């Protein structure tokens, strides 16, 4: 059985250039238009989204317009960056240059003060994804989420070691970027199953 999931990164949020994890800014008008373009022409039966405003408000609007069910799932929130969350990038760099440099270089070793752990972040996404695929087998799903979530799933589904920069920083995802996955599930007579993910699309509309 085949399940198709379109992951869309949210559009541009209000509030300027900042380290935005759990900080809950809504979309700008430009960001909203980018999302309309990103989903144009896509076919899907169900919408799932992060609870953060930059994802949920647009997803809810789409669900209401189309009469589709909406699932708000906290497993697909962006990583919480703790005391750094919501800080302007340039100001943050001035205050914490060494710590930020370490964090960007090896995020599996260093984390923001009071922030979400690297492996905790990956684990909740992996669990949320597995539950999603198990529950909605055979459906086509639109998942509105975040770049960090999309990179985490990209690494997990392609078996890229998490402790590499390839898994954390080399995949550029603009606002409105899309990654689509086809998940093929084989089930034996005992009910055991194996999922085979296939990258179907990577880019922007």
Task: Record the SSE blueprint.
Elements (H helix, E strand, L loop, with lengths): L1 E8 L19 H11 L6 E4 L3 H14 L3 E3 L16 H7 L1 H9 L12 H18 L4 E6 L1 H11 L7 H4 L9 E10 L5 E11 L2
Helix pairs in contact: 5-6
Question: Can you put this structure into words, describing what you see?
Answer:
This protein has a six-stranded mixed β-sheet with strand order 3-2-4-1-5-6, with helices on both faces. Strand 2 (46-49), helix 2 and strand 3 (70-72) form a beta-alpha-beta unit. Helix 5 crosses helix 6 (147-157). Helices cover 36% and strands 20% of the residues. The model has no long low-confidence stretch (mean pLDDT 96). The chain has helices at residues 29-39, 53-66, 89-95, 97-105, 118-135, 147-157, 165-168, and strands spanning 2-9, 46-49, 70-72, 140-145, 178-187, 193-203. The chain has seven helices and six strands; from the N terminus they run βαβαβαααβααββ. It has one domain (2-12, 32-79, 118-203): Phosphoglycerate mutase-like (Rossmann fold, 3-Layer(aba) Sandwich), CATH 3.40.50.1240. By secondary structure, it is of the alpha/beta class.
């Amino acid at each position: 059985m085949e399940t198709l999931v379109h992951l869309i990164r949210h559009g541009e949020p209000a509030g300027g250039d900042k380290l935005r994890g759990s900080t809950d800014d809504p979309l700008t008008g430009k960001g909203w238009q980018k999302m309309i373009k990103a989903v144009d022409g896509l076919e899907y039966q169900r919408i799932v989204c992060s609870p953060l405003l930059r994802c949920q408000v647009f997803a809810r609007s789409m669900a209401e317009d189309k009469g589709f069910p909406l699932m708000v799932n906290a497993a697909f929130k962006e990583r919480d960056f703790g005391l750094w969350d919501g800080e302007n990038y340039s100001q943050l760099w001035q205050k914490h240059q060494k710590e930020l440099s370490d964090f960007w270089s090896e995020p599996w070793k260093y984390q923001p003060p009071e922030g979400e752990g690297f492996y905790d972040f990956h684990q909740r996404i992996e669990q949320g994804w597995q539950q999603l695929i198990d529950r909605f087998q055979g459906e086509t799903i639109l998942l509105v989420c975040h770049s960090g979530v999309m990179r985490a799933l990209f690494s997990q589904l392609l078996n890229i070691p998490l402790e590499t920069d390839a898994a954390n920083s080399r995949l550029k995802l603009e606002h409105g970027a899309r990654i689509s996955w086809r998940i093929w599930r084989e089930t034996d007579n005992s009910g055991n199953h194996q999922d085979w993910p296939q990258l179907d699309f990577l880019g922007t509309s």
